[in-house]
Amino acid sequence: DTEVTQTPKHLVMGMTNKKSLKCEQHMGHRAMYWYKQKAKKPPELMFVYSYEKLSINESVPSRFSPECPNSSLLNLHLHALQPEDSALYLCASSQGTGGRETQYFGPGTRLLVL
Amino acid sequence: GENVEQHPSTLSVQEGDSAVIKCTYSDSASNYFPWYKQELGKRPQLIIDIRSNVGEKKDQRIAVTLNKTAKHFSLHITETQPEDSAVYFCGTGTASKLTFGTGTRLQVTL
Fold it and tell me: CA-based angle A60:A66:A71, to the nearest 5?
């Protein structure tokens, strides 16, 4: 399996809701990433997990809470989001850690916050 | 932190012509330089990458050149086809993370 999968594909939530985004890879990769992508902009790094431990948090607001239950799964828990958080949320994975390994992206979850 | 500039922001070429996209970066510690293609509504997909110990790499119609001294690298697409139309992002990688350029929207017209 050479693919990163993400669920759901689309998500609409209110500002008081709690929801979770899920990401899965079965390539044996040891690093997993969450990116946020606004329209017509590049992906913006949010979090990096290396060997199931959080290694980078790019000063992301606490209403975004990542979790890595095991080496194949990555979750992003959402709570009390703002309309400006509407974006495409991309998960990625790589064999090794850091920025010098090829990153493979999932299809993303398109999030709309009302 | 790393600063990656990408030019041009939009590029329109006729089918069969060549397209060149250039990125400059600031962090001399960067030693991994990927290029991603993102079609509308799709995920970014790696099309080619290069590491700092190599000056040029080619894969069929796609090539990347790297000038570490000047801190710039370029994507070259020859014999462009309509399916090459997409947004292209360059990236620079250090030990800690990958930083993306601002993107180039390539339009290949018939």
Answer: 135
- List B residues 41-70 in contact with A (Cβ-Cβ < 8 A): 42-46, 49, 51
Which chain A residue's Cα is nearest to B87?
Answer: A40
Give me chain B's average pLDDT, please: 95
**Does B56 have pLDDT greater than 70?**
yes
Nearest Cα to B104, choosing from B17, B1, B12, B18? B12
Q: Looking at the complex, does the CB of residue A60 fall below 8 Å from at least one CB of chain B?
A: no
Neighbours of A77 (CB within 10 A): 13
pLDDT for A1 beyond 60: no
Which tokens hold the place of B46?
Answer: 């790696």
Q: Please count the residue pairs, one from chain A and one from chain B, whose beta carbons lie less than 8 angstroms apart.
A: 60
- Our CA angle for A94, A87, A21, nearest 5°, is 55
Q: How far apart are CA B39 and CA B53, in angstroms?
A: 30
Residues of chain A with Cβ-Cβ distance to B64 below 8 Å are none
In the predicted model, what is the mean pLDDT of chain A? Answer: 94
Check whether B34 has a pLDDT greater than 90: yes
**Nearest CA among A29, A4, A14 for reference residue A82:** A14
Q: Check A104 against B49: CB less than 8 A apart.
A: no
Q: Is the pLDDT of residue A2 over 70?
A: no
- pLDDT score, position B2: 84
CA A63/CA A36 separation, integer angstroms: 14
